[in-house]
Amino acid sequence: MSTPPDHGGSGQATVRWRLRVAYDGSGFHGFAAQEGLPTVAGTLAEALSRVTRTTVTLTCAGRTDAGVHALDQMVHFDVPAERSAALEPAALIKSCNSQIGPAIVVRTAEIAPDGFDARHSATGRRYRYLVVNAPVPDPLLAGLTWHVPDPLDLRAMVSAADALLGEHDFRSFCRRVPGTTADDPIPRRVVDARWTKLDGRPSGARTAGTSDLDAERNAATGPSLAPVVGDLLAFEIEANAFCHQMVRSLVGTLVEVGRGRKRASDMLPILRSADRSQAGQPAPPHGLTLMAVRY
User: Fold this and answer.
1) Exactly one of 6, 24, 65, 162 is catalytic; which is it?
2) Residues of the chain with CATH 3.30.70.660
């Protein structure tokens, strides 16, 4: 067991743990802890503090907004070495999940390798956004999807998404961070961006070359999520990092393309404009899920 130097400035040796966490963001005011409001970090930290018998502060791979979900969020926290010695991963998982599940679930727990940081060690993050394209809403999917009643041109949306690949300045699709100006570029490198109509393949089906995480993702979007009427569309995007509201703004703009209010060929000029007013309004938060973090 590695014992990294003190991370809190107390002079006491600490051990860093990392957890894979999933959560339904519907009942939370985002991930980050906020005084007096239910948040994912606040709720999970309270549970971990009871388990470890010490105050826990969490660092995550990517802060999610209010209403946004996660299947594979990564977090880390530091505990005094003597407390860590008394922790068993299976017991920690069971205790946390009995306290705060199923809204928040700890999937795995382990001592982190030396130098690990949930946020800064991450090399990529993958998000999925679900859209139900149907004349009427689906009540069973309402908490996980955006209902769009207008007919959508999926081919145009696929073509528009291709413009996102590569490294670009994403100021057109990001909410400005306090302390920055409109002239500050927001470069991000997108390695995958695609729309898919989710089909009725058996839940969890594996194909050659499919990773465990991809199979997990397939299981989460199998026929159990298929709407009774209409189509279930998934937008998946992976990048080295994302800025505030970037995925939701991209989805909102791409749906405008699907509705015929913008053209697929408009996507690259919107990117190059670095003008937030050129993009569509952000899609609702509840259709968005953090699917994976790469290290």
Assistant:
1) 65
2) 124-294
Summarised one tens digit per residue, pLDDT across range 222-260 is 445 788 899 999 999 999 999 999 999 999 999 999 999
Class of domain 14-111: alpha beta
Nearest 10 degrees: CA dihedral of 60, 64, 69, 72?
Answer: -30
Q: How far, in Å, CA of 23 to CA of 217, rounded?
A: 15
What the block records as the tokens of 167 is 């490294």
3-state helix, strand, coil split of the chain in percent (to 5) is 30, 25, 45
Q: Is 34 helix (H, G, I), strand (E, B) or coil?
A: strand
Task: Identify whether 65 is a catalytic site residue.
Answer: yes
From CA 245, how far away is CA 278, in angstroms rounded? 15
Using alpha carbons, list the distances in angstroms from residue 209 to 128, 157, 221, 261. Answer: 20, 26, 18, 38
Q: What is the mean pLDDT of residues 167-185?
A: 83
Distance CA 121, CA 112 (A): 11
Helix (H, G, I), strand (E, B) or coil at 188: strand
Where do the CATH 3.30.70.580 domains begin and end in the chain?
A: 14-111
Provide the pLDDT confidence category of residue 10 given band limits of 50, 70 and 90: low
pLDDT digits (tens, 9 = 90+) for 16-54: 999 999 999 999 999 999 999 999 999 999 999 999 999
CATH label, 124-294, candidates 3.30.70.660, 3.40.190.10, 3.30.1490.20, 3.40.50.2300: 3.30.70.660
Helix axes 246-259, 154-162, angle to 10 degrees: 140
